[in-house]
Specification:
Layout: H1 3-33, H2 37-64, H3 68-81, H4 84-104
Transmembrane segments: 6-31, 38-57, 77-99
Keywords: Membrane, Transmembrane, Transmembrane helix
């Protein structure tokens, strides 16, 4: 593979990780200011997103050593469990937003 492609993929991964870390820091600040079920779910979801991304990368790497069938099996499993952190974050955001709107009204 061309080095320029590797650079683009590496830069994209770094930017994505920095964005995830920013969301985690934002959730930590939110939890310290307003600790409730919604903010805790958002924090858990954001941390799990980072953990799942590392798990997906390492799992694909290890599966690659076992062959194409192993990569396909890992990809199928992760296609099902991968969205779970986003679902947790979304539910937490919804709970927080509903609670925030009720307090404002």
């Amino acid at each position: 593979m061309d080095d320029s492609y590797t650079l683009f993929f590496a830069l994209g991964s770094i930017l994505g990780t920095l964005a995830q870390l920013a969301v985690i820091v934002g959730c930590i600040v939110l939890v310290t200011k307003q600790k409730n079920g919604g903010t805790l779910l958002m924090l858990i979801g954001s941390i799990l997103t980072l953990v799942f991304n590392v798990l997906n990368f390492s799992g694909t790497l290890f599966a690659g050593h076992r062959g194409a069938d192993s990569i396909l099996s890992w990809t199928k499993v992760f296609a099902v469990i991968g969205p779970l952190p986003y679902i947790l974050f979304g539910i937490g955001l919804l709970v927080y937003a509903i609670g925030h709107v009720r307090k404002s009204a």
